[in-house]
Structure formats: C-alpha cells, structure tokens
Amino acid sequence: MASPCVICSEPCGRKLSKSFPDVNTTSRNDYCRALGVDPVIFAHIKTRRYLCFKHFDNDDCEEVDGKTVLSRGAYPKELTEREKNFLICNPPVARLRKPGSRL
Ligand SMILES: [Zn+2]
C-alpha cells in the first residue's frame, strides 16, 4: 500500500521511497538538518512513513539488478522554499485532527 510522502504528500510506493527515521532518533534530526527544516515540523510523525527518492540527489540513487536503490548513508537534499512552504502550510497534523475533538 502506498502511503503519502512526508515531504510532498504524494503517494509513494515502497519501491521508490525511503523510510523516514523514527521520531527522537539522531537519524531523524540528521534528516531534518539535511532538509533544512526544524524537526518540530515532523514531530507528529510517529508511525512508519516514507519519503520519495526524488528528495534525494540523483547521485545517491543507483540501479541494482534493475531496481533503483538508495546508496547507504544517503541524506535527502535541502528542500526548496516552495517545498518548505508546502510543508508549513499543509501540516499533516491539521488534516488528522478530528473536527470538534476536545483536548
Ligand atoms: Zn515526496
């Protein structure tokens, strides 16, 4: 099943996507630093999620046995202003919050 990409919200299949590191891990912070965003933006993402390969440099993607794989230790590219704005303006938490739910 395809799940929406943590960056662009487009459905990404497991084949051409990379799992996003778990919350409160050094890898998660490193990813955020590479993307150029505050980890707080992704703080609500606590389940297993993915990001598309297109957020990585082409040099980090290799063809192995006809499949595209990401090289080990690859980090995503810094987001463009447009992508950052998209993330900030469309926080997934707003879509998940149930209308009328009480704190
Ligand atoms: Zn994406």
Characterise the protein shown here:
The protein is α+β, with helices and mostly antiparallel strands and 103 residues long. The chain has one domain. The chain is 23% helix and 17% strand. The protein is built from 3 helices and 6 strands, in the order βββαβββαα. Strands 1-2 form a two-stranded antiparallel ribbon. Strands 3-4 form a two-stranded antiparallel ribbon. Strands 5-6 form a two-stranded antiparallel sheet. The longest helix is centred in the N-terminal third of the chain and has 10 residues. The protein is globular and about 50 Å long. The structure holds zinc ion. The site of zinc ion has 9 residues, from strand 4.
In short:
The chain is an alpha+beta fold. The protein has helices spanning 26-35, 81-89, 92-96, and strands spanning 3-4, 11-12, 17-19, 50-52, 61-64, 67-70. It has one domain (3-87).
Largest sheet: 2 strands, antiparallel
Give Rg in angstroms. Answer: 14 Å
Q: State the domain count.
A: 1
Small molecules in complex: zinc ion
| Uncertain stretches | none
Percent strand equals 15-25%
Q: Helical proportion?
A: 10-25%
Instruction: Encode the helix/strand succession as letters.
Output: EEEHEEEHH
Overall geometry comes to: globular
Class by SSE composition: alpha+beta
Mean pLDDT: 87
Number of helices, counting only DSSP H or I runs of 4 residues or more: 3
| First-last Cα distance | 32 Å
| Overall number of strands | 6
Q: Give the neighbour order of strands across the main sheet.
A: 1-2
